[in-house]
UniProtKB/TrEMBL annotation, chain A:
It is found in: Cell inner membrane. Residues 14-251 form the ABC transporter domain. Pfam families: ABC_tran (PF00005). GO terms for cellular component: plasma membrane. This is Amino acid ABC transporter ATP-binding protein, PAAT family. Gene3D superfamilies: P-loop containing nucleotide triphosphate hydrolases. InterPro entries: AAA+_ATPase, ABC_ATPase_HisP-typ, ABC_transporter-like_ATP-bd, ABC_transporter-like_CS, MetN_ABC_transporter-like, P-loop_NTPase. The lineage of its organism: Bacteria, Pseudomonadati, Pseudomonadota, Gammaproteobacteria, Oceanospirillales. Transmembrane segments: none annotated.
TrEMBL record, chain B:
It comes from Halomonas korlensis. GO terms for cellular component: ATP-binding cassette (ABC) transporter complex. It is a multi-pass membrane protein. Belongs to the binding-protein-dependent transport system permease family. HisMQ subfamily. Residues 23-212 form the ABC transmembrane type-1 domain. This is Putative glutamine transport system permease protein GlnP.
Length: 257, 223
């Protein structure tokens, strides 16, 4: 264990201990142990319904779990989590990008990005706008700031969603299948923005079906099968020399086409 | 007896100044009642979708009672029945406003519930994931979107309530229908006067429809 910690170089920013989650009689997450260190990019892969989205949604309390313990940046989440101070703190420090973008349709692109910094961090409009404009430029969408979300393409909307999450200056970014709802020609622009973010050293947990992207940006790949971590390791190991039979079978199915 | 009936335009127009005196009462009962009904509707509509059962039950009870009984019975109960309990008479105007308030409040509760529940779950999740509190998420994200979707139904309810006030002639409020009845009692021009009464209601409701259409169009920006 000491060896692992010296490798990662720091205390983990996220630590899950024996996390279990049930939806009624369905056991969705089984004894999940996972630690992510600062600056690490962890990509979570697995079949639909394997529990990979549920896993990252537990980290910012969008899903509650029944047993185990989650610690995020020193804040503790407990089973059957209520809306505690710690949860609020975690959500302030953890950004999330959703499959369906979930932009606020009644607000302009700029207001989508400035809302949380102003209401949660208490920034004034000038500072929030300045930061928003810088982030929108970074995701290459600054000329659309006055528009409303529905006037943008899917790829543009997802890049705004990324800027919106980054405006809170998060310590960790969660991505829940960020390209699954996009037309094929728009996937690249979103992955590019994420690639850049990874290069800048952002800690990221990414649930995706984009295996090429996973191999390229991941420091570590986690394969989830029926609610359990079946295999984890560097991308070369998981993709090229999987140790688990289930990983092999999953990869042969998704990499075939 | 004369079989060819002549519509008496002079009588029709002549009744208008007298009928117009009823308009302030009609408007006061309608919009006073609706304003209170809107507040009731927000409160009970939100209680109705509360995860806590003991908050939900009173809201459901209120909605079912006041949606399931006629507004005429409600105003008769308030005007004639309640004074027997509280021991002092209730002003007819107040009774009218109260009846519209509790009646429209029940319908508006359902409109509010439907509006809020129609907002996709992802909107709430996006707000919470950004660190907004549940209250902030509701105020800045859910409610503005829900309210826009509620506008057509609220307008509909407004028009229904305006017309409901016509029933309150039975408790003697000098609203539009009551004014008409009083006028007809001396002139007997029922056809002309009721036609004018109908036109005046139409003037009010069409104005409201038009205003709401403008509001809706404005609300479409950004949707």
């Amino acid at each position: 264990m000491n060896h692992d910690e010296s490798l990662s170089g720091a205390d983990p920013i996220v630590r899950l201990d024996k996390v279990n989650k049930h939806f009624g009689s369905l056991h969705v997450l089984k004894d999940i142990d996972l630690a992510v260190s600062s600056g690490e990019v962890v990509v979570i892969i697995g079949a639909s319904g394997s529990g990979k989205s549920t896993l990252i949604r537990c980290i910012n309390g969008l899903e509650e779990f029944q047993q185990g313990h989650i610690q995020v940046d020193g804040n503790d989440l407990v089973p059957h989590g209520k809306a505690t101070k710690a949860l609020q703190k975690i959500r302030t420090e953890v950004g999330m990008v959703f499959q369906q973008f979930n932009l606020f349709p009644h607000l302009s692109v700029l207001d989508n990005v400035t809302l949380a910094p102003m209401k949660v961090r208490g920034w004034n409009r000038v500072d929030a706008t300045e930061t928003a404009e810088r982030l929108l430029e970074r995701v290459d969408i600054s000329d659309q700031a006055a528009k409303y979300p529905t006037q943008l393409s899917g790829g543009q909307q997802q890049r705004v969603a990324l800027a919106r999450a980054l405006a809170m200056e998060p310590r960790l970014m969660l991505f829940d299948e960020p390209t699954s709802a996009l037309d094929p020609e728009m996937i690249g622009e979103v992955l590019d923005a994420m690639r850049e973010l990874a290069k800048e050293g952002m800690t990221m947990m990414i649930v995706t079906h984009e295996m090429g992207f996973a191999r390229e940006v991941a420091d570590r790949v986690v394969y989830i099968h029926q609610g359990e971590i079946a295999e984890e390791g560097p991308p070369e190991q998981v993709f090229d020399a999987p140790r688990n039979e289930r990983t092999r079978s999953f990869l042969s199915r998704v990499l075939k086409h | 007896m004369d079989v060819t009936f002549q519509f008496d335009w002079q009588a029709a127009f002549g009744s208008i100044p007298f009928l117009l005196k009823g308009i302030p009462y009609t408007l006061l009962i309608s919009f006073g009642g609706l304003a209170i009904g809107f507040l009731i509707g927000i409160l009970f509509g939100l209680l109705r979708i509360s995860p806590t059962a003991w908050l939900r039950v009173p809201a459901v009870t209120y909605i079912e009672i006041f949606r399931g009984t006629p507004v005429l019975v409600q105003v008769l109960f308030i005007f004639y029945g309640l004074p027997q309990i509280i021991g002092s008479p209730i002003n007819a105007l107040v009774a009218g406003i109260a009846a519209i308030a509790v009646n429209s409040g029940a319908y508006i509760s359902e409109i509010v519930r439907g509006g809020v529940q129609s907002i996709e779950r992802g909107q709430r999740e996006a707000g919470l994931s950004l660190g907004l509190s549940r209250r902030q998420t509701f105020r800045y994200i859910i409610w503005p979107q829900a309210f826009r979707r509620m506008i057509p139904s609220l307008g509909n309810q407004g028009i229904i309530s305006i017309k409901d006030t016509s029933l309150f002639s039975v408790i003697g409020v000098g609203e539009l229908v009551r004014q008409g009845q009083v006028y007809i009692a001396t002139t007997f021009n029922a056809l002309e006067v009721y036609l004018m009464v109908a036109m005046l209601y139409l003037a009010i409701t069409l104005t409201l429809s038009f205003a709401l259409r403008m509001l809706e169009r404005k609300g479409l920006v950004g949707q």
